[in-house]
Amino acid sequence: MIIKSADFICSNTQVSKLPPPLKPEYAFIGRSNVGKSSLINMLVQKKGLAKTSQTPGKTQLINHFLVNDNWYIVDLPGYGYARASKSKKADWNKFIQTYLDKRESLQCVMVLVDSRLEPQKIDLEFCSWLGEKGLPFVLVFTKADKQSNIKTDQNIAKFRKAMLAFFEEAPQHFVTSSELHTGRDEVLGFVSSINQNFEVPDFDEEHYK
CB–CB of 127/159 below 8 Å? Predict the structure, then answer.
């Protein structure tokens, strides 16, 4: 896939204010500080499209980016925020879950996992929740340039093994590095293959007025 354009469309906390679900979209989510903004910018080759921050948990809104005028990258707040009150955390979790569970045009959730870490409980629990809801997802392992390939492979194998406690088989996964552009063609190729079969879903237009 050749990226010709990538534009910020909107930020909000209300599912009713999202763009009408007329184009396929892919939600990017992961633990705070997993390298989500850097990965999104690398995929579309546009520095600064998604704001990278030194403060983990800064993305507190649903951000829509329109790519090539025909599909959306959706940047979701990270889970496991560094600093947030319990009530605020509950509100965020609720609106993220509502988006993931109800969004008609969501094609796949891209769950970002730091390839340098042993399997984290919070990541596994989130994947388990997606499985319970029957939501399609893939694993995107980030920051692979920060360690040896052997270490990356070992951590991925451990994560996939841990997932077998919840799933009959581990989902598809990609290994990425925002610095080296590793995995870019593979992730975009995956998106492209799904986009080809996209059909506009039935949806309640009243929700988007």
Answer: no
Whole-structure pTM value: 0.92
Could you tell me the domains of the chain? 6-196 (3.40.50.300)
Per-residue pLDDT tens digits for 134-148: 999 999 999 999 999
Question: Using H for helix, E for strand and C for coil, what is the string for the chain?
Answer: CCCCCEEEEEEECCHHHCCCCCCCEEEEEEECCCCHHHHHHHHHCCCCCCCCCCCCCCCCCEEEEEECCCEEEEECCCECCCCCCHHHHHHHHHHHHHHHHHCCCEEEEEEEEECCCCCCHHHHHHHHHHHHHCCCEEEEEECHHHCCHHHHHHHHHHHHHHHCCCCCCCCCEEECECCCCECHHHHHHHHHHHHCCCCCCCCCHHHHC
Measure the CA–CA gap between 50 and 74, rounded to whole angstroms: 10
Q: What tokens appear for 117 in the block?
A: 């870490």
Q: What is the share, in percent, of the chain residues with pLDDT greater than 90?
A: 73
Residue 59, pLDDT above cutoff 80 = no
Q: What are the tens digits of pLDDT across the range 75-91? A: 998 886 555 566 666 66
- What residues are paired with 87 via a beta bridge? none
CA distance 143 to 176: 6
Pick from 164, 112, 105: nearest CA to 138: 112
Pairing state of beta strands 106-114 and 173-175? Answer: unpaired
